[in-house]
Amino acid sequence: MRRSGCGSLWPPWLGQPDTVDQKTLAQVALRTDFSTELLLARRISKGPDMQIWVDADGCPSAIKEILFRAADRTGVLVTFVANQPVRVPPSPFIKTLQVSKGFDVADNEIVRRLGTGDLVITSDIPLAAETIDKGGQALSPRGELFTKENIRGRLNMRDFLDTLRASGIDTGGPPPLGQGERKAFAGHLDRLLAHRASNR
Question: What structural domains and CATH numbers belong to the chain?
C-alpha cells in the first residue's frame, strides 16, 4: 500500500481517493481496520461533505430506522449523540457519540462539532436555532424543517409555553408520532440528501 495525500494508508488498486465513490469506500472499510482513515481521506480529497447529527435522546425509534436506511443508501455519515448508549446497526456510515449527563451537554456537543451545511435532527428549538446560526440545517423528527424564516417564531412560541407552564398552566405534551409526520420527515430528508448528491 502507498500513502495518500492525507497521510492515510491507501490500497493502490483503489486509485486516488478523489476518484472513489462512497459505496466502494464502505465496502473497503468493512473489510479493513482503518475505516476512519478511509472516510477521512474521502472528506479531505473531495471537500467537506454534509453530515447528519442526531439529538438522539429524544429521537423516536421510527425516525432512527429511517436514518439508518438513509445512511446505508446514500453513504452520508450519521452520528447519534446522546447521554446514554444508543443501539445502532453495524455500518461505516452510522456512529454514536455518548456524552456526559447534564443539561444541554448533548446539544452543546452537536453545536461544537457541526459544520456549515450539516443537518441536525432535533425537536429542541434552541438547538435548531443555534444550528441555523452556524450555517447548518435543522429538521424535526416530526417533519418540520426549521429555517431562518420560521425559527424565531418557533422560539417565541416555545418561550410563551414555558411561561405558561411556569405559572402552573398545564399545556399538555406532544401527541404520539403519526404516520403523516413520519412521511413528512422522510420526504424532507430525501430532498436534502438529493440536494447533497447533486452538489457533489
Answer: 2-46 (no CATH), 51-198 (3.40.50)
